[in-house]
Amino acid sequence: MPLPPSSETESVPQAHCPLHPEVLATGICQRCGTFICVDCRRRGRDGRSYCGPCLNKALPALASRRDRFWANLVDSLFVTLPLLGGIIMPIIAFSDSAKEGPDDFGVFLLLSPLLVLVVTLGIQIAMVVKTGQSLGKRWRGIRVIRMNGQPITIVRLALLRNLLPVWLSQVTGVFGLVDALFIFREDHRCLHDHLADTQVVNVESDRPLRPY
Ligand SMILES: [Zn+2]
Ligand SMILES: [Zn+2]
Question: Do 195 and 150 reside in the same domain of the chain?
């Protein structure tokens, strides 16, 4: 049965820890619902409390660095290759008729890099907001979610996970490198994951948690 929102923090009067019957329970495991005492209480990376056996089973497995690398590469190519086409197309088209000046179709061609970018980024953003998966992530069976297991919103995705890192890279020059190197930490979370409070997990292991 779903627990009320405050069940995790409320004291549990008269309930005893099953592993330490002499000790009063101070919380409830958010996966199996068993009473837990202070010693038995484990804090998951979603910030919620679990009993020892549930700690690793409750949370979805983190995506491997290899899957994240390949997903990233595919996503980058999906945006950059069409963009390159959008840039080259007008250059070729105008190379013959440079002196005549652009007509309507010429203006359309000049705008083509922008149009290409809007379409490719639009597809990726729509996919991630709907399923947590970009094209590359879908291919590798991984998805991005909030640390508390909730889906990511479009504002968080666009501003904190994409635009802010791009801006920081422009300003500092080294943000991109540091961001990528963070993947080698134990939690596999890049700096942009920390900025956006997100994690990338395996879809297979991403089972719904007990509701808040
Ligand atoms: Zn449990
Ligand atoms: Zn205990």
Answer: yes
CA of 58 to the centre of ligand 1 (A): 8
20 and 101 belong to one structural domain: no
| Tokens read off for 89 | 């197309």
Question: Which residues lie closer than 8 Å to 198 by C-beta, 6 or more apart?
Answer: 144, 145, 146, 147, 152, 156, 161, 189, 192
Q: What type of residue sits at position 187? A: D
Its sign, for the CA torsion 71, 75, 78, 80, is: negative
Ligand 2 mean position, distance from CA 25 (Å): 7
Convert the pLDDT of each residue in 11-61 to its tens digit: 556 899 999 999 999 999 999 999 999 999 999 888 889 999 998 787 888
In a domain, 211, yes or no: no
Q: What ligand is nearest to the CA atom of residue 54? A: 1
